[in-house]
Design a protein that fits this description.
InterPro entries: UROD/MetE-like_sf (IPR038071). This protein is α/β, with parallel strands linked by helices. The protein contains twelve helices and ten strands. A hairpin with a 2-residue loop joins β3 and β4. The mean pLDDT is 98.
Length: 316
């Protein structure tokens, strides 16, 4: 069993954070996101940095797509470039596992606005264009990481905290007075599949992470993700069969564990393996434990302790 982080971490010093990550969860190092650095440094800002052929900038209501790259998007790209330079310096000669995180097409569609207002989610053509732009940009990003750290086994984690809301018509309009129509599963599949297929031959593995309740496991497994990452405390009894089927088909499960003691985390994992019907040794070999969600909202010492506990839990 291994441990890793979801992605975001507190602080503003990327070199210091990457070093801490290597020390704490060296079996699966991840490139941290440090939103404390300001505009462009969070998950959505990083997503705009990856878009191929689409401009964006921050407006009073949030990120908006434009016909050109705005100052905030350029800043997001600069921050990402700086982070990759530091990652390359710190992982010279590294041959272990490395994870990078990117926002998924549906979380971006539920967050970004169209040039004339309203979320991208409202427009079928805009949704498709965004998914294509993201898939191309993510593939380029992953190839750059592989070039910089050629000995690493690369996993790309697609973050989709808004996916469930998109499927259930629970994304509010900009005014907050209404909800956008649900996206049909076939379209949701197509956009996510574009990203996975773009990474074929570039990344060694892909994972889908969501810290929201009701992970749409039946939708995600056929797309081809190698792992599903989720908050274990949010899993309902009627979801276990789908997760068990995913596990039996070869999809790795990455349960997110809360801030319990190492002993309680181990007991929680044992109960989860039992309800899945999984044998201990194969389950331990395939499982990666994570926090339930990103750690950016925690104090630095709390985030460090959370990763320390997870690493101890993984060691058994």
């Amino acid at each position: 069993m291994r441990a890793t982080g979801v992605g975001s971490m507190p602080g503003t010093d990327v070199a210091e954070t990457i070093k801490a990550v290597r020390d704490l969860v060296g079996d699966l190092v991840f490139l941290p996101e440090l939103p404390d650095r300001g505009d462009g440094a969070d998950m959505i800002g990083r997503g705009t940095a990856l878009l191929d052929g689409l401009g964006a900038d921050l407006q009073p209501t949030g990120w908006r797509l434009l016909d050109r790259s705005g100052r905030d998007q350029r800043r997001a790209r600069s921050l990402l470039g700086q982070d990759l330079d530091v990652l390359e310096e710190q992982l010279v000669g590294a041959e272990g596992d490395l994870k990078i995180q990117v926002p998924g097409p549906w979380t971006l569609a539920a967050t970004l606005e169209r040039p004339r207002g309203g979320k991208v989610l409202a427009d079928h053509g805009a949704r498709r264009e965004l998914a294509e732009s993201l898939a191309s940009g993510v593939a380029t990003h992953a190839a750059d990481v592989r070039r910089r750290v050629p000995g690493a086994r690369l996993t790309v984690q697609v973050d989709e905290p808004a996916l469930r809301a998109v499927l259930d018509a629970q994304v509010p309009t900009v005014s907050g007075l209404d909800r956008y129509r649900r996206v049909e599963p076939a379209e949701a599949d197509a956009a996510l599949r574009r990203v996975v297929e773009a990474l074929d031959g570039v990344a060694d593995a892909t994972a889908l992470h969501s810290c929201a309740a009701r992970l749409p496991t039946d939708l995600l497994v056929p797309i081809g993700f190698d792992a599903l990452s989720f908050d274990l405390d949010l899993v309902e009894p009627d979801e276990v069969d789908a997760l068990a089927a995913a596990y039996e088909s070869g999809v790795a499960l990455w349960p997110g564990l809360g801030h319990a003691s190492v002993g309680e985390q181990r007991r929680r994992l044992e109960r989860f393996a039992e309800v899945l019907g999984a044998s201990e040794a194969p389950f331990e070999a395939a499982t990666v434990v994570t926090p339930p969600c990103g750690l950016a909202g925690h104090a630095p010492d709390q985030a460090r302790r959370a990763l320390e506990r997870l690493a101890a839990t993984a060691r058994g």
